[in-house]
Amino acid sequence: MSLADKKKLLEALLASEIGTTALRFLELLVDKKRYDLFTFAAAVYGRLLAEKSGTAKAVVRTARPLSADARKTLAASLKTFAGKDIELDVKEDPELIGGVTVKIGDWVLDSSLRGQLRRMRESFYHHGN
């Protein structure tokens, strides 16, 4: 696919979704063949958009699926904590064994069983030396 075709495709898909400046930036990435930066740019754009709209994205990893009620309760608790509306991005991760991890920006809560076991192991090694 030629660069011109890639730019046309970008414009067709995103022109109504993002502003002209953002679209031109993505076209520049295409021109410079920096496709690896698309994911990074999308993440930063999403974070900036959330900040502007007064929301925060919470990346939640759970060992088991969350019910609709559990999602509502978690979102409400995180809203109280963060002082913003919360958009949950929930992913299942059986490696957690049990519990949940939550990341909002730089803040992380790890109440997973795997995290608790890791902290216990670190505590034993630290106190044993």
Short description:
This protein folds into 2 domains: 1-53, no CATH class; 54-129, no CATH class. The N and C termini lie far apart (60 Å). It has helices spanning 3-14, 20-31, 38-53, 68-82, 113-128, and strands at 55-62, 85-92, 100-104, 107-110.
Q: Radius of gyration in whole Å, from Cα? A: 20 Å
| CA-based shape | elongated
Order of helices and strands: HHHEHEEEH
Enumerate how many helices there are, as a single number. 5
Roughly what percent helix?
Answer: 55-70%
Low-confidence stretches: none
The total domain count is 2
Distance between the termini: 60 Å
Largest sheet: 4 strands, mixed
Q: How is the largest sheet built, in terms of strand order?
A: 2-1-3-4
* Helix and strand composition category: alpha+beta
Q: Classify the beta-strand content into a percent band.
A: 15-25%
Number of strands: 4
Mean pLDDT across residues: 86
How would you describe what is shown here?
This protein has 129 residues and is an alpha+beta fold. The chain has two domains: 1-53, no CATH class; 54-129, no CATH class. It is 55% helix and 19% strand. It has five helices and four strands. It has a four-stranded mixed β-sheet, with helices on both faces. Helix 1 packs antiparallel against helix 2. The model has no long low-confidence stretch (mean pLDDT 86).
